[in-house]
Design goal:
Layout (H helix, E strand, L loop, with lengths): L10 E2 L7 E10 L5 E9 L7 E8 L8 H13 L3 E6 L16 H15 L4 E10 L1 H10 L6 E7 L12 E2 L2 E2 L1 H15 L5 H4 L3 H11 L4 H6 L5 H4 L14 E6 L6 H9 L4 E6 L17 H14 L11 E7 L12 E6 L8 E7 L5 E2 L7 E5 L26 H4 L3 E4 L7 E5 L2 E8 L5 E9 L5 E10 L18 E6 L3 E5 L4 E7 L15 E5 L4 E6 L15 E2 L5 E5 L2 E9 L4 E15 L5 E13 L2 E17 L2 E13 L3 E12 L2 E13 L4
Parallel strand pairs: 1-27, 4-5, 4-6, 6-7, 7-10, 10-11, 11-12, 12-23
Antiparallel strand pairs: 2-3, 3-5, 8-9, 12-13, 14-15, 14-26, 16-25, 17-24, 18-23, 19-22, 19-25, 19-26, 20-21, 20-24, 28-30, 29-30, 30-31, 31-32, 32-33, 33-34, 34-35
Length: 683
């Protein structure tokens, strides 16, 4: 992903309380002989005056890919009296071994050994904190649940407590087509990069070939588990929140793909906990867009100082949840800033929210009263519905956010209110209760919640999906009996949004949402009964006095690494339609550019090209193709990896194919192709 260091409203800090030294590479031995690679930032006098430690443990290559990002926060923490440690997971970066999948028990076991190692160092005292964004947020939770005595608190950013229901694989029991293969193809390419010869010596090439040969495409295992089985329960801390016995600070953003988990963890964890939700995409809050950004390094330091140093920082005297309430905005596929205000909740319990129901009417209205004459409406399939949804988990690039939903609404069945007489603030989970029948045994139900401006522009506020065969259980799905009556609840993504006076609330219903959701094998028509059992409930939140006390410092950072930008980045996202074949095509292209780190001379970059195609009226035509080119080199040592991943399906099977080709100085040194046929299971 393109990495931008945003400098607006940013204070550059050059004088830290303690001078910092950096250990570029140190090996942490595991019991089985594998060595993990770490970079450590320390106060210069740490051996004479030992310090607590902070651990970030991720697979994204500290020597090149995250080097710039790491240089923002690790020196800051070290300068404030911490050993800040960045470790590459087994099978990634310079670390030895093979990575066979994400979040394996081996990954957690290694982390426990890393914690043991930290505790044995002469510069360490008083415990360890663990933090990370995305993968590092996931495993911070997972490792906290293993209860190592040295781990005293965590910060989990842009992560989830539920690997099945709320990650890049499945959503609402449906296959997340936009991300299932894309993320697997990303890790296939990322894992295929070699170790740095300057750090490991001549064995780099032998190790590289072994890594290329043994690291599997993760998508095969993900698609073998289409229900919530033991595979997904592993690493999902929601299976038993009481496994976590240390304080948790959970952070998310409204444009991120993982915000729902913040609310669930605040409600269900039984430890000291904090939640923070800004307007942000999948990035750290001091640099994420849309703004406003906050001084998240200072906020993190307050957390660590409280739990690792016993300082009085007042952080635990503040409300449990701080969230940014977006003011209503017009649809934008990119936003640098969102108008709004910070709000706070002393405690978060979903059942204590104020819900206001709106009932669907046969004339297309949403009203406060149920329909007096019960009727029904047919929700029909349109395979192209969803192309303007944006990406599932935006990183802050141009074109990632949902476009004007008027381009979607012709393919859905919509209901809307009259213009609001006053502002309506929402905070929490909207839900649609629905009484329905389906003409097919397999069907998805997608709900979009929209804000309709007086000029007709339509902004998507939230969305949700339910694979209707999963309405009673994600673990034990049941086919629908065609035309039989059912009742279900579709929970939409959490929202923090103030709908403006004069705007309308709109709900849009459909059985399809491509490319986010892989289509059912038959086009389904869902008949929705319009009565008191079919209604939209909204989490209404009035302003409170406590809101006026929410404040954060401005972002600050230590100086970052110097780089040479050898090739500029670019990004595009295009939709096209072939009227002769009735095929819709979405092409997402990202050129990360190539940059050279002046500290170690490493050059790195990547290009990803993702194509999603589908034909009108033909759910079996759905196809995803993901191509990557990824570069790592230095002077006369240059490597390139080219990968291709493809996913299609017929009535009975998903068909998956992956290819990896590796080059050293333009000479092909490795090539491997694999395929899998995996039965469809209630999807």
């Amino acid at each position: 992903m393109v990495f931008n260091v945003r400098k607006s409203n940013r204070k550059i800090i050059t004088d830290l309380p303690r001078k910092v030294k950096k250990i570029e590479n140190i090996w942490i031995p595991m019991k089985d002989g594998v060595k993990l690679s770490a970079t450590i930032w320390l106060p210069e006098d740490a051996e004479e005056n030992p310090v607590p430690a902070l651990l970030e443990y991720i697979p994204y290559r500290k020597t090149d890919a995250t080097a710039l990002r790491d240089s923002l926060r690790h020196p800051y923490f070290a300068g404030h009296g911490y050993a800040s440690i960045r470790v590459d997971i087994r099978g990634s970066g310079e670390s030895e071994g093979i990575m066979y999948d994400e979040y394996l028990k081996q990954e957690q076991d290694d982390a426990l050994e890393v914690l043991d190692w930290i505790c044995q160092q002469p510069w360490h005292t008083n415990g360890v904190g663990m933090f990370g964004k995305s993968w590092g947020g996931f495993n911070s939770l997972q490792i906290a649940a293993r209860n190592h005595p040295a781990l005293k608190a965590i910060m989990t950013i842009c992560s989830t407590d539920d690997r099945y229901a709320d990650d890049v694989h499945y959503k609402g029991g449906a296959v997340l087509a936009s991300d299932m293969l894309w993320w697997a193809s990303t890790m296939l390419a990322y894992n295929a990069r070699p170790q740095d010869p300057q750090l490991v010596g001549d064995v780099w090439k032998e190790n590289w070939i072994e890594r290329l040969d043994k690291t599997p495409p993760f998508v095969y295992e993900w698609m073998r588990h289409q229900t919530r089985d033991a595979y997904w329960k592993h690493g999902s801390i929601c299976e038993n929140y009481d496994d976590i016995q240390i304080p948790v600070y959970a952070v998310g953003g409204w444009e991120d793909g993982y915000t729902n988990a913040v609310f669930r963890m605040l409600e269900n964890l039984n430890v000291p906990r904090k939640g923070l939700i800004g307007p942000w995409t999948h990035e750290y809050p001091e640099m994420a867009v849309p703004g406003p950004q906050i001084g998240f390094l200072q906020e993190a330091l307050r957390w660590w100082d409280h739990w690792l140093k016993g300082k009085e920082t007042a952080i635990m005297d503040e409300p449990m949840l701080k969230a940014y309430m977006n003011d209503g905005y017009t649809p934008q596929t990119y936003a640098d800033y969102r108008e709004g205000k910070w709000v706070a909740e002393e405690n978060w319990q979903q059942q204590s929210q104020q819900y206001e129901p709106l009932y669907l009417q046969s004339n297309g209205q949403l009203t406060e009263q149920p329909a007096t004459h019960h009727s029904s409406v047919h929700i029909t399939s349109a395979q192209q519905h969803g192309l303007y949804a944006g990406v599932f988990c935006p990183f802050g690039l141009e074109g990632e956010l949902p476009a004007d939903q008027r381009m979607e609404n012709g393919y859905a069945t919509c209901f809307q209110t009259t213009p609001l007489e006053e502002n309506l603030p929402l905070l929490g989970f909207p839900k649609l209760h629905v009484q329905f029948s389906s003409d097919q045994p397999l069907a998805n139900f997608i709900v979009r919640l929209n804000d309709v401006a007086p000029d007709g522009q339509v902004t998507r506020m939230s969305w949700g999906v339910l694979n209707l065969t999963h309405m009673n259980s994600h673990e034990f799905p049941e086919k629908l009996v065609p035309h039989e009556q059912y009742e279900a609840t579709i929970t939409l993504n959490a929202v923090g949004y103030r709908i403006k006076k004069g705007h309308r609330i709109q709900v849009a219903l459909s059985p399809t949402y491509w490319p986010h959701i892989w289509p059912s094998k038959e086009e389904a028509t869902i008949t929705v009964n319009l009565n008191d059992k079919t209604n939209l409930v909204l989490p209404v939140r009035e302003d409170q006095e406590i809101d006026d006390n929410v404040q954060f410092e401005q972002p600050e950072t230590t100086p970052v690494l110097e780089i040479d930008q050898l090739h500029d980045p670019s990004h595009s996202r295009n939709i096209s339609y072939d009227v002769t074949t009735q095929q819709w095509t979405l092409v997402d292209y990202t050129d990360e550019g190539i940059r050279k780190l002046k500290t170690n001379g490493i050059e790195s970059g990547s290009i990803s090209h993702n194509v999603y195609t589908i034909r009108e009226g033909d759910p079996l035509s759905a196809a995803v193709n993901c191509d990557w080119e990824i570069y790592v080199g230095r002077d006369e040592w240059q490597t390139k990896v080219v990968t291709n991943s493809r996913m299609t399906a017929d009535e009975n099977y998903f068909y998956l194919a992956n290819k990896v080709v590796a080059y050293h100085n333009d000479e092909e040194v490795f090539s491997k192709e694999t395929t899998e046929e995996i039965p469809r299971n209630h999807v």
